[in-house]
């Protein structure tokens, strides 16, 4: 009988440090302060770090069939390289709002950071294998993004 194809999900994590300020250009200063509180501090703010730094733990899950020859879903060295390029290079030790063009127009919430990482990884990984991007802002605050969109109109 035909060999069954086995799928596995492979996860890999990285942590980067960055600085950001939650501020929407479409709201007044007063509305921003009300909505984002201390995260709207003009000098940026940090998470569990002194000064203007957020430490975000990113886990990413790819879903692929197990290669019968190598026994692997994907070479981890390749995955590491993609994550360096998609996550660490653009985001690590950066001021998200000032150094990353994407966040010039988009509020640098953890949700939007997850979308940014998803889009970057999609450009590098073989199509259809990225399963989810998980961003831990703190132990309590976790965002999971699986690329879903709703079409409006």
Automatic annotation (TrEMBL):
* Pathway recorded for this protein: Cofactor biosynthesis; tetrahydrobiopterin biosynthesis; tetrahydrobiopterin from 7,8-dihydroneopterin triphosphate: step 1/3
* The organism's place on the tree of life at top rank: Eukaryota
Q: Is Metal-binding one of the keywords UniProt gives this record?
A: yes
Keyword Zinc in the entry? The reply is yes
Which one of the record's GO molecular function terms can you name? 6-pyruvoyltetrahydropterin synthase activity
Pfam family, any one:
PTPS
- InterPro entries found in the cross-reference section: 6-PTP_synth/QueD, 6-PTP_synth/QueD_sf, PTPS_Cys_AS, PTPS_His_AS
Question: What keywords appear on the UniProt entry?
Answer: Lyase, Metal-binding, Tetrahydrobiopterin biosynthesis, Zinc
What are the names of the required cofactors? Zn(2+)
| Xref: PROSITE patterns | PTPS_1, PTPS_2
Sorted alphabetically, the Gene Ontology cellular component annotations on this record are: mitochondrion
Q: Name one GO biological process term.
A: tetrahydrobiopterin biosynthetic process
What Enzyme Commission number(s) does the record list for this chain? 4.2.3.12
Q: Which CDD domains did the record assign?
A: PTPS (cd00470)
SUPFAM superfamilies reported in the protein's UniProt record? Tetrahydrobiopterin biosynthesis enzymes-like
Entry's family note: Belongs to the PTPS family.
Q: What does this protein do?
A: Involved in the biosynthesis of tetrahydrobiopterin, an essential cofactor of aromatic amino acid hydroxylases. Catalyzes the transformation of 7,8-dihydroneopterin triphosphate into 6-pyruvoyl tetrahydropterin.
What is this protein's record name? 6-pyruvoyl tetrahydrobiopterin synthase
């Amino acid at each position: 009988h035909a060999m069954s194809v086995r799928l596995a999900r492979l996860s890999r994590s990285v942590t980067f440090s960055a600085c950001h300020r939650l501020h929407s250009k479409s709201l007044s200063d007063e509305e921003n302060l009300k909505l984002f509180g201390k995260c709207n501090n003009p000098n940026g703010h940090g998470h569990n770090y002194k000064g203007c730094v957020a430490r975000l733990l990113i886990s990413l899950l790819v879903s692929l069939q197990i290669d019968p020859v190598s026994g692997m879903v994907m070479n981890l060295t390749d995955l590491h390289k993609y994550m360096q390029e998609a996550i660490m290079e653009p985001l690590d030790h950066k001021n998200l709002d000032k150094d990353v063009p994407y966040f010039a127009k988009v509020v640098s919430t953890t949700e939007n950071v997850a979308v940014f990482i998803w889009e970057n990884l999609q450009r590098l990984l073989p199509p259809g294998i990225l399963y989810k991007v998980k961003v831990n802002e703190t132990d309590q605050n976790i965002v999971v993004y699986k690329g879903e969109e709703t079409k409006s109109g």
